[in-house]
């Protein structure tokens, strides 16, 4: 379904329930509706409704357009779920910035039905699994990616293997940082090319800081100038730059030592990437009678030889210390996911038990 914001009278009739939902939102936006109720994805807790104002959403959309150099008439591909903020904000950007939108129902291979010789988009946003699947399963679609002004990746952390793989893309690729409460992203991190970095840069007009836990707080027009306190532990480099270390509520307490699982995950992903493996993984703490919690590595359909497992353990020991070393490796086929395609850690762990 293609929607041109400049010609709403010529919008097509919806053929599916998903297209109906996208059209309903777009028509509500054009009608001037001032408040919208969205739901969090549920990746870090129980999904909850959040009311966002039109003014907040407009501020976010225009800031993204300004940052990425988007112009009226630039074509956008909307392939994220429009039931959640990431997909909804793709629609808002299209409507506010005048971007003709090709809207497709989310899938792991969003470019599968597009001919590279006949397709050109200026802008899109993916979850990591989508981009990974495109590069692995449909590499002939690379020209579509290369022609874009900007590609956003959000919803979950990008693995080291994916960051290496996406270096073949010529268009700028950015990791996003944000959440429903901040009306999508408030900071970007370049993932490819000579300016790739591990540091996020807050967008113009976004005020950031940390609390006593070193957890990030955010104030901006998109938050209605109210402070949003997160549970994300960061290394605050300066007034606009930060490194994302992990979530405070995911810390593993093993033998009285606190371990940030995201740091262990990054080391493990680098080892897997060096072995040519791109399977998804995460690190969690499972109950342990002696330690309280033991660190475990959970991989998706991942088979490791004893030598490969030992290589991961030694890499973690060298870089993060002995308490961070995973004591157990568990394979799950496949991971449970939230409706937005994020790994549902709690549901996956429940299946292990």
From TrEMBL:
- Matching Gene3D superfamilies: 3.30.300.30, N-terminal domain of ligase-like
Residue ranges constituting the AMP-dependent synthetase/ligase domain according to the UniProt record: 37-191
Instruction: Name the source's superkingdom.
Output: Bacteria
Q: Which PANTHER family match?
A: 2-SUCCINYLBENZOATE--COA LIGASE, CHLOROPLASTIC_PEROXISOMAL, ACYL-COA SYNTHETASE
Output this protein's name. Answer: AMP-binding protein
């Amino acid at each position: 379904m293609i929607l041109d914001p400049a010609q709403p009278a010529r919008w097509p009739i919806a053929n599916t329930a998903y297209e109906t939902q996208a059209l309903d939102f777009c028509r509500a936006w054009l009608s001037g509706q001032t408040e919208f109720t969205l739901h969090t994805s549920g990746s870090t807790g129980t999904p909850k409704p959040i009311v966002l104002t039109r003014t907040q959403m407009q501020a976010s959309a225009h800031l993204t357009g300004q940052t990425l150099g988007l112009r009226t008439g630039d074509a956008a591909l909307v392939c994220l779920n429009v039931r959640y903020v990431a997909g909804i904000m793709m629609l808002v950007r299209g409507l506010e910035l005048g971007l003709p939108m090709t809207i497709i129902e989310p899938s792991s291979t969003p470019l599968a039905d597009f001919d590279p010789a006949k397709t050109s988009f200026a802008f899109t946003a993916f979850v990591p699994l989508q981009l990974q699947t495109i590069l692995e399963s449909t590499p002939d679609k690379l020209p579509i990616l290369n022609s874009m002004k900007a590609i956003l990746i959000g919803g979950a952390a990008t693995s080291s293997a994916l960051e290496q793989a996406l270096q073949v893309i010529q268009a700028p690729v950015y990791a996003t940082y944000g959440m429903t409460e901040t009306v999508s992203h408030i900071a970007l991190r370049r993932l490819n090319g000579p300016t790739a970095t591990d540091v996020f840069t807050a967008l113009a007009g976004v005020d950031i800081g940390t609390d006593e836990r070193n957890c990030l707080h955010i104030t901006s027009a998109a938050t209605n100038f109210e402070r949003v306190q997160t549970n994300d532990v960061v290394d605050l480099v300066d007034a606009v730059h930060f490194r994302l270390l992990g979530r405070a509520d995911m810390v593993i307490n093993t033998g009285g030592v606190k371990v940030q699982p995201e740091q262990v995950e990054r080391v493990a992903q680098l080892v897997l990437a060096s072995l040519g493996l791109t399977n998804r993984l995460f690190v969690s703490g499972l109950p342990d009678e002696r330690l309280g919690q033991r660190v475990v590595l959970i991989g998706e359909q991942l088979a490791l030889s004893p030598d490969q497992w030992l290589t991961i353990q030694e890499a973690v020991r060298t870089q993060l210390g002995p308490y961070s070393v995973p004591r157990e490796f568990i394979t799950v086929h496949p991971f449970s996911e939230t409706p937005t395609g994020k790994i549902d850690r709690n549901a996956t762990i429940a299946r292990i038990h």
